[in-house]
Amino acid sequence: MSDSQFSFEFNAAVPERKIYGVRELVGAVRGQLEKSFPDLWVEGEISNCRPAESGHVYLTLKDGDAQLRVVMYRSQSRLLRFKPQNGLAVLVRGRITLYEARGEMQLVAEHMEPLGAGALQLAFEQLKQKLAAEGLFDSARKKPLPALPRRIGVVTSPRGAVIRDILNVLRRRHNTLSVLIYPAQVQGDSAAAEVAEGVRFFNEQAAGEEFSVDVIVLARGGGSLEDLAAFNDESLARTVAASRLPTISAIGHETDFTICDFVADLRAPTPSAAAELVIGSRQEIEESLEALRDRLRRAMQYKLLYQRQQLGALAKNRAFARMEDAIALRQQRIDDLSFRLESQLRARLSAAQRKLELAASHLYRQDVRRRLVMRQKDLEARVEALTSTLQKAMMRRRARLEQAAAQLAVLSPVSILARGYSLIFDASGHLVKDAAQLHPGDEIRARLARGEVEAQVRATHSEAAPPGVAHSAGDTNSSGGVAETTRKAGKRKPGN
Amino acid sequence: MPKFEECLQRLESIVKEMEKGELPLEQSLKLFEEGMGLTNTCRKELEEAEGKVELLLKQNGQLRAEAFGESSGN
Predict the structure, then answer these.
(1) Residue A197 and residue A488: Cα distance in Å, rounded?
(2) Is B55 in the A-facing interface, judged by CB distances under 8 Å?
(3) The domain at A119-281 falls in which architecture?
(4) Do residues A165 and A138 touch, judged by C-beta distance below 8 A?
(5) Domain containing B23: what range?
């Protein structure tokens, strides 16, 4: 009975036996799950994140001990503005389903965003890290602004307040800089591509004349992170980094940073500041040009002053001093001669005067008026003759004096040096006129028209003095024989 | 454009050389004259800019520059 009791109870609990096939059961559960959770939000921490070749992303969301498998298909994952990473807390929207092949429950994600920081912010940080790792922000890459920009290319919206701010600054500073505006959307889906196109355009035109600019300014007014998103675009960032022309990013307000700010050669806190920067370099140049001009002038003045001093010092130099002495000595002699000339003249005149007085007193004593008159005439004639003789003599002497002075000038060591000759002095400062005066190893000093040379004698070659040089002009007749005899003598007295 | 920068660089090196004061007078004079010539060239370049503001416009697939009226606004 107990059996029947049992069987009754059993029958009561399971009125009919329903046996599922696995596929059927899994399919049924899947249907239930999909019906119950068609659209939900779930948050958790990413682990086991595996992006697949196909572009699908597989990951597990963890929350304590519980896990949820998540798949995000390529069509959705490519819209992500950040890269899912293990450990990242995310909020995921999707539907629950069952992966029948494994019998695993999984969430098919439609959308995913990082918790805490916004997705854009995260994307920004990730792109920034990536480009920094590639070295695109390196200061060594930064190109200097041109010293004298003639025209700047501004990539911006021609309608915004931004371009007007820039132009206002330029006008306020009375600047003559030219501006070429490349119109581009600075917000929205096409913005990044349009701005990049502008950067490329100016680079392509750099070699030409018509549209060439010296620096590119990317300008946009302030806005939210979403508004500035175009300037965080990776492709735009790479275009800016590749620009051969220097770039200035002038995006948003001082507190806004974009990826473009990091890759550009210079970041201006605002568009107006960008204009100031460009003009600033120009004014610096104008000032430094003036400073260079002043320095050039001063250097030249200093050089002239220095040379004048040098000249003075040179004149005091031993060799020249000696020559000057010689010249002065001769000058003195000339003066002397001319004094004597005049005093002789005076002496003769006064002698004549005395004679005249004597004669006059004689005449006076004879007291013959007629004779006196005759004598007087005779006397006057004689005085005249005497005076003219004296004058002639004086003129002759003057002429000789002048000739001597002219010869002296020609013989002046300075003018001889200027003609390419040089003066050689031996160690004791004596002028060397004969090779025999020197011996190999002797120190000599050569005075040139400009400068001095110190040298050492290597060899000497004595030579017979040619006629008329070795001897004074007076004894030319006998010089031939003397030259012959002195050739082998070798030890002629120095100084000839 | 690079010509200006070259001028300026040359000028700078001339001034530096002159300031050393080691050159003979004749060469100093030559450099001085060259330097003064360069400052004049640079000044002229500085004064030559025109201050034009132009906007690029696409027309039949070709870009051309048109004077930008700051008041026109569009």
Answers:
(1) 96
(2) yes
(3) 3-Layer(aba) Sandwich (3.40)
(4) no
(5) 4-63
Cβ proximity of A487 and A470 under 8 Å: no
Residue A249 bridge partners (DSSP) = A218, A267
* Residue A407 pLDDT greater than 90, yes or no: no
Supply the mean pLDDT for chain A. 80
Query: How many of the other CB atoms lie within 10 Å of CB of A221?
Result: 22
B28: nearest CA partner in chain A? A300
Please state the ipTM of this predicted complex.
0.75
* Partner residue opposite A289 with nearest CB, options B43, B55, B74: B43
Q: Which of A216, A286, A296, A308 to mutate to test the interface with B (most CBs of B within 10 A)?
A: A296
A358-372 residues labelled b (16+ CB within 10 A) or e (exposed):
eeeeebeeeeeeeee
Tell me if A289 and B73 make a contact (CB, 8 A cut-off): no
**Cα→Cα distances A307→A304, A421, B22, B29, Å:** 5, 23, 11, 12
| Residue at B44 is within a domain | yes
pTM, entire model: 0.49
CATH class of A22-114: mainly beta
Record the tokens describing residue B73, joined without a space.
């606004």
pLDDT average, residue stretch A446-474: 70
B16, part of any domain: yes
B37 to chain A, closest Cα gap in Å: 10
Q: Which residues of chain B does A161 touch, with a Cβ-Cβ cutoff of 8 Å?
A: none
The partner residue sitting opposite B52, judged by closest CB among A146, A178, A306, is A178
> Across the interface, which of B11, B19, B55 has its CB nearest the CB of A299?
B19
Amino acid identity, position A301: Q
Q: Are the beta carbons of B21 and A176 separated by less than 8 Å?
A: no
* Best of B7, B14, B18 to mutate (most A CBs within 10 Å, chain A): B18
Chain A residue numbers touching B6 (CB-CB < 8 A): none
Whether chain A has a CB inside 8 Å of the CB on B7: the answer is no
State the sign of the Cα–Cα–Cα–Cα dihedral A126, A132, A133, A136. Answer: positive
Least confident of A217-221, B19-23, B36-40: B19-23
Give the C-alpha separation, A304 to B26, whole Å: 10
Contacts of A434 (CB under 8 A, 6+ apart): A462, A465, A492, A494, A496
Alpha-carbon gap, residue A109 to A183, rounded angstroms: 40
Instruction: Mention every residue, 6+ apart, whose C-beta is less than 8 A from residue A391.
Output: none
3-state DSSP call for residue A338? helix
What's the structural domain count of chain B? 1
Question: Can you read off the two tokens belonging to residue A11?
Answer: 């029958």
